[in-house]
């Protein structure tokens, strides 16, 4: 047995033991996935555990080796998280944040790709999705385990100061003979990967599985679910979309085939102050928490696309948000307004939805 095979087998044994301890916790995930039962042609395999500040679940059908490969894909998602996690001081994103206003930071190809994709969706949404929103996240008390403010809402002066530090265009990406690098233009700027990191990591996991001969799989990371191929009976994966005000039921169920879906909701992180509900999704243009929407669900070709666009539409609202989605090939969206009105794009697959 060579060293690579030994390490791979060791990873499988460690991960298999780990996922047994996490199996019951998986039911707390924000989105639930319906999978078909076992078939004679393929066995159902499943791994899950805490990662990316949520629970990650990977499912696939295959032979006896498939479970081991799923465990390795979970480890791969952990490696991506180690690169991107802005709450981990040793991550590459944290290094970029620490060097803001100073020097460029050498980064891995994976971090470079994730940031380049994030900039693309920031441009597409005219800044409604802005991953440099970190100073506003901190100002409103959403950068801690228990969100909230000790006193009143931030005053106009503090909002103005934080808004000066929010501008995705101030992230400069480049490459030279030493490799890719990244730099934030102004001191105090801060990248927050919360609106694209899960989608990117899920995309990487599916790519990892495809490269190892598993073309049909499902990866769920909190509110983002990426589906590759189909189930053994050639039926698409069935995904339940959470009701934003009743977590014991689904708003609707959709079918996915080589697509991803993400839901952003005001129920994920919030607190009340002076009788007002403050959601963790902040409009990077005004600096204020968005209060006009309960949830947004986006179907897109990739996880990073659905992840970033669900945040963008949450900020834009149903009018401008759906106009944006109608321009993007392979993308559909469903929006629940603050008043409980359900609106969706022209190609949304389920037309009869009762709130």
Please tell me about this protein's structure.
The chain has 8 helices and 16 strands. Helix 1 packs across helix 2 (66-84), helix 2 (66-84) packs antiparallel against helix 7 (197-211) and helix 4 runs parallel beside helix 8. A hairpin with a 2-residue loop joins strand 5 (171-176) and strand 6. The chain is globular, with a radius of gyration of 20 Å. The termini are far apart. It has helices at 3-22, 66-84, 92-98, 109-124, 134-139, 156-163, 197-211, 303-325; strands at 32-34, 43-51, 54-62, 105-106, 171-176, 179-184, 217-221, 224-228, 237-243, 246-256, 259-265, 270-273, 276-279, 293-300, 332-337, 342-344. Among the domains are: 1-69 and 194-235, no CATH class; 92-184, ApbE-like superfamily (T-fold, Orthogonal Bundle). The strands form 4 sheets. The chain has an 8-stranded antiparallel beta sheet with strand order 2-3-7-8-11-14-15-16. It has a 3-stranded antiparallel beta sheet with strand order 1-9-10, with no helix packed on it. It is an alpha+beta fold and 355 residues long.
Map the helices and strands.
Blueprint: H1 3-22, E1 32-34, E2 43-51, E3 54-62, H2 66-84, H3 92-98, E4 105-106, H4 109-124, H5 134-139, H6 156-163, E5 171-176, E6 179-184, H7 197-211, E7 217-221, E8 224-228, E9 237-243, E10 246-256, E11 259-265, E12 270-273, E13 276-279, E14 293-300, H8 303-325, E15 332-337, E16 342-344
Antiparallel strand pairs: 1-9, 2-3, 3-7, 4-6, 5-6, 7-8, 8-11, 9-10, 11-14, 12-13, 14-15, 15-16
């Amino acid at each position: 047995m060579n060293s690579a095979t030994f390490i791979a087998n060791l990873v499988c044994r460690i991960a298999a033991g780990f996922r047994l301890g996490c199996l019951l916790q998986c039911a707390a995930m924000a989105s639930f996935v319906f999978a078909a039962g076992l078939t004679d042609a393929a066995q159902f395999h499943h791994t899950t555990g805490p990662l990316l500040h949520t629970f990650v679940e990977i499912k696939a059908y295959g032979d006896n080796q498939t479970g081991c490969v799923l465990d390795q894909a979970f480890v791969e998602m952990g490696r991506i998280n180690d690169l991107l996690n802005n709450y981990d001081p040793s991550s590459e994103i944290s290094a970029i944040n620490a060097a803001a206003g100073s020097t460029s930071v050498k980064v891995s190809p994976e971090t470079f790709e994730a940031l380049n994709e994030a900039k693309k969706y920031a441009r597409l949404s005219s800044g409604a999705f802005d991953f440099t929103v970190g100073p506003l996240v901190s100002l409103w008390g959403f950068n801690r385990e228990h969100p909230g403010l000790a006193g009143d809402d931030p005053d106009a002066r503090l909002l103005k100061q934080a808004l000066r530090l929010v501008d995705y265009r101030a992230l400069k990406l480049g490459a030279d003979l030493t490799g890719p690098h990244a730099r934030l233009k102004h001191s105090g700027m801060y990248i927050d990967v919360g609106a694209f990191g899960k989608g990117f990591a899920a995309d990487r996991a599916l790519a990892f599985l495809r490269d190892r001969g598993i073309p049909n799989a499902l990866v769920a990371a909190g509110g983002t679910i990426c589906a590759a191929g189909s189930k053994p009976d050639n039926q698409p994966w069935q995904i339940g979309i959470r009701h934003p005000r009743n977590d014991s039921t689904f708003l609707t169920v959709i079918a996915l085939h080589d697509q991803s879906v993400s839901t952003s909701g005001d129920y994920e992180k919030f607190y009340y102050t002076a009788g007002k509900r403050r959601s963790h999704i902040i409009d990077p243009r005004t600096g204020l928490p968005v209060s006009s929407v309960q949830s947004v669900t986006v179907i897109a070709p990739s996880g990073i696309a659905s992840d970033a666009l669900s945040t963008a539409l949450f900020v834009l609202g149903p009018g401008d948000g759906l106009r944006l989605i109608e321009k993007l090939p392979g993308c559909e969206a469903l929006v629940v307004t603050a008043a409980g009105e359900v609106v969706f794009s022209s190609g949304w697959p389920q037309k009869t939805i009762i709130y």
